[in-house]
Please model this.
Amino acid sequence: MPPSLPEILAKTTTSGYIIAPAGFGKTHLIASSIKLASSRQLILTHTYAGVDSLKKKLRNINVESSLFQVDTIASWALKMCLSYPSNSGWRKEFPQSSDWNDVYKACRKLLNSDFAIRVIKTSYTGIYIDEYQDCSEMQHDLILGLVDFLPCRIVGDPLQSIFDFADKPVCWERDIYPNFLKFGELTIPWRWRNSGANELGDWLVNIRADIENEQAPQLPAQLPKGLELLKIDIHDFTVEPRKRFASFYKSASQVGSSIVIFSGNQRSKNKSHKLAQSLSGRFTSIEEVEGKVLASAVESIEKAKSSANKLIKFFEFLKKCMTGIAGELTAPTKRGEVAKISSRTKNKKLTELSNSFLAHSTSDSMLQIVSEFESQAQVQTYRRDLLNRFKGVLKLHNCGEGAELTDSLELYRQAFRHAGRPLKFNKQIGTTLLVKGLEYDHCIVINPKEMTSKELYVALTRGSKTLCVIHP
Model:
């Protein structure tokens, strides 16, 4: 009997790649292979969510912790540089987004040192690089430095390469296929088999070649069970909302998680927030990792020269996250003025809290105001991701973590890189870039013709049980 793919990866002494389509058991493959290893392996991926997923799978199949270390490429490179600052030339402990290419260059330089090679070879006997299609050219160059002295197993799917880097993503046709041995390819759509959606899974396997060739996916005479096509323009406001949004209401009521996916362009990012608002919080829109809207809000509140202006800026931000804010406020409160409270005041508690904020503009008072809004039946949160991050910054500042609110924001960002999104609500709206690598029970894809072929493949493969495609 020929060796299985996990056995091949575990025993290889050379470097090579595995094609792992979405939902075909990539994480299980890596974990199974490491379980067969005789010594410690380094596993590198791109996000801390990916690190957590790999660690969870390794624990689930009882892999000895002595056999692996899991880290992001960025974090591992930074740790190496900071461990040997004289040789790497890097001493900055908290790089900004614009610094990371310099970190990779410094680490690559370090790999030219004999002592650094000895340290790595003493620590590990092999390396796995997960989600390789998400590597930038600079990260790929760093990996080539490791390939020189340790077997590297490259695991990924070029059809899911949708990130756009300033220094370009790795090109499989140029950088991988001609230079590395192909160990194998995953062929069974386990995501759909395990959820009982065999027909949908088989159809996704069959149309993969169409999408690779940038052709429209072929549809059989009878649609596979679990696939629905709807001809609706959700932006046609002449159609009543109940008809335009019927599929979203249905998905929101289904058991399990649901995702609505737009293409990854900037216009679609704005559409996802607008749709979440129109659906009155039945779905929540996912924010970009960079958190630019959050940073802008925190800075504008901090820079406001008076308590009145701070309160106005605070409410402006809350209106980006919640519906019904204005209806809960008195006219003076909206203007940033102390409001008189009478028997006719609609929301006395909120008015009291706002008056208190004008007297003492603290993070705790803002948290109390947010909590009061959240308790109101007429107020619905549609950007929970953004609001949760803001609350996280306020909590840090309230505990004395950071002299200024912007200091607390930076501390929160550092923790966020490790902890991931503080979002537990499982009915979400996002773009292809934000949902890549995630899995849901139910998926709605909006206007597939606006997507590139790779974006389309990523979108179609997010839902494990049902898939609905809406097009005008």
In short: The longest strand covers residues 463-471.
